[in-house]
TrEMBL record, chain B:
It comes from Corynebacterium suedekumii. InterPro entries: Put_sensory_transdc_reg_YbjN. This is YbjN domain-containing protein.
Amino acid sequence: MGQVTNPPSSPIPDTPVAPVTPERLAELLEAEGLQYRLESAPVPDGEASTVVVRTGFINAAIAFSLDGDRLICDSMWRGEVTKADAPKVLGIVSEWNQSQYMPTLRFFESSVGEGHLTISAHRQVNTAEGLSRNQIGAFVMSSLDGVLRAYDWVEKQLPELVTWEDPHNEQ
Amino acid sequence: MSSNTDITPVTIQRVADAMSGFDVQLDVHEGNDVASANLNGLPVTFAVLGSVALVRADTVTEQTLADADPTLYLASNQVNCVSFGARASVMDRGENLIVRTEREFSIAAGLTDAQLSATLRDAVDAVLATQDGVKVAAEELAELRAAVEKQLDEHQNS
């Protein structure tokens, strides 16, 4: 009997590409043991409601949403920045964006308190042709890792704004 | 030969093949996984770097870091907040400030031909649109500043 040679296979068998849904994102987060919740996002009257998959960490609120042909990973850092810090924050986001591929760091006026700024990290992937399970996995996991790296870096520049205690702090 | 539904590793040659489908011929720099083309008068770079690939366009400005003018930085942040689909940043390590717009995409799990084409089309459009976005935002910010300065001058002289 001749020996059967198998082509090298990926450790996790992939699925064919298929449309991306909030449920597929939730499945992935579930499999990774991450907490999440599905939430209907408010939309103008007459438009189909969209579902946002929310997850997060002690220092970050993270949302995955589908917008046309793109899957968006958006996030907000927990630190409360005042407008007086704007020049410093502009320097921080500019430095990150010119030296790191992703995510994009940005800041804008906070919707909660006047005179406050929100620092946000953002990333996206084209979903026009659908994604396989491993592709969703690669995007979600590398985005979460990137968001945490970005905020870790922000926290090193603005340590006085870290007012929470990380229960997982190994130091 | 892969069919449109096979998920295969992304190489710079596949990127060049996909772009030729849009009648854009890339100049492939053999050996370093980089290719380039001139699009809309801008140098556009395509690169394959391990788990990500990227498309970027650069505009060299007349400004230098020594000008200490935050306009381009503010304009880039403004554009990143509305998202034209690519990231704007100001490269200030060299002599002149460079407005860079860039879109990266994950290739860790491979892409089909159809995915690669759709992603590249989206990325190139976004990278070029974001260059225009930064330009417009910077002009608006400069006008705003000029108007405020004029007002302050008039106030001081009255």
